[in-house]
Amino acid sequence: MQCYLRQRWYDNRLRFNLENITEVTLSNSFLKYIWKPNTYFINGRRSQQPNITVPNVFVRIRQDGRIYMSRRLTIHAVCPMKMMEYPMDRPVCPLIISSYGYTVNDILYIWKNGQDKSVEMYEGVTMSQFNIRGIQTKNLTKIDHNGEHSVLEVYFHLKRHVGFFVLQTYLPCTLIVCLSWVSFWINRDAAPARVLLGVTTILSTASTGMMVRDGLPRVPYATALDVYLNVCIVYNLAAMIEYAAVNYFTKIIPKEGSTSDSEEEQIPVTDPKSNGIISTESNVRHYSCYNLFLRCLVGNYQFRNQNVARADLENGNSVSKIDMTSRYFFPASFIFFHAFYWSWYWDSGNFQTS
After folding, report:
1. What angle do CA 222, 227, 230 make, to 5 degrees?
2. What three-state secondary structure class fits 98?
3. Does the bond joining 22 to the residue before it have cis omega, within 30 degrees of 0?
4. Residues 282, 268: contact at Cβ < 8 Å?
5. Could you tell me if 153 and 96 are in contact, meaning their C-beta atoms sit under 8 angstroms apart?
6. 86 vs 82: CA distance, rounded Å
7. Per-residue confidence of the chain (354 residues) as pLDDT tens digits?
8. pTM
9. Does residue 94 have a cis peptide bond before it, meaning omega lies within 30 degrees of 0?
10. Which of 7, 256, 310, 329 has CA atoms 20 to 30 A from the CA of 133?
11. DSSP codes, 27-88
């Protein structure tokens, strides 16, 4: 982040008494001749001072020896985060300020305008991934092996933008899971179609999860996003297992009253070319492809009923009870999971913040 670090301290050695001059503004080169508090950021990984077009620092000295120094800094600080609720997490990122080398016997840090108004944010400042919900400051002392040090702490309360993850991860994975349910409406005998649909949905969900995890730190626990992706994979896999159960448990049960091929019912069919001459179903079997196509094209009612009856006899019960149950069970359970998932992790993020 970029910030302006403004410090004030007294140095009696720099007092002056000049008429009509209350303060003196000095250049950056004068800093090496005065005492400075050696302020640094304890949790800062890298900090730098912009030098375009000149070093972004200035110093003012007043008559009573009070020194005012302002620097423009770019700070890269460490922010410890708990990723269990990611991306519904609300991290709190600290910025810890102290003196490098000086103890409380030499220097004491305090907030000039109190702990509520010393840190100011410019209006209109936005972040790509977070919203700043609030700022908290503390003034305390810490003891280490070098002695007791005065420390200032700033805590930035953040809230992660969830909209990006809804559009890029949650919505696509939800649609993929819904797509896997289409197999419940596909004929159970269409094994290639149902297997291909199941494998495609599983691979699509897995590839989406891999792309999302590439931008995350390698944490040793599951995040909220990992939980959602794994549940989606389980639903896709369950659709595949459901089809295996359909094939295993469902048997072709011939209809009551059906007979063998040698005793099958003779269904009279009118030949469209025979002017009312009746033929039997057994004869229709031996018709040429041309005659069969002609009957389908003309729309012979009895011939159509005969083919429907034959298809029912060959296929038995075309809709499995397992498929019929899955059509309602899978969507209902997925909706229940969504309600539980969002309420649980949303409340967990609020509890973590409090």
Report:
1. 115
2. strand
3. no
4. no
5. yes
6. 8
7. 888 899 999 999 989 888 888 889 888 888 888 899 999 999 988 877 777 777 888 899 999 999 999 988 888 999 988 888 898 889 999 999 999 889 999 899 999 888 778 888 887 777 888 888 889 999 898 888 888 999 999 999 998 889 889 999 999 999 999 999 999 998 888 888 999 999 999 999 999 988 888 878 888 888 999 999 999 999 999 999 999 988 887 755 444 444 444 334 444 444 444 444 444 444 444 456 666 666 666 666 666 666 656 655 555 446 788 889 999 999 999 999 999 999 998 876 554 544
8. 0.70
9. no
10. 7
11. -GGGGGGS----EEETTEEEEE---SSS-SEEEEEETTSEEEEEEEEEEEE-----GGGTTS
Place of tokens 């907030």: 111
What six digits make up the tokens of 155?
A: 């805590």
Q: What angle do CA 136, 137, 142 make, to 5 degrees?
A: 135
The letter for the amino acid at 251 is: K
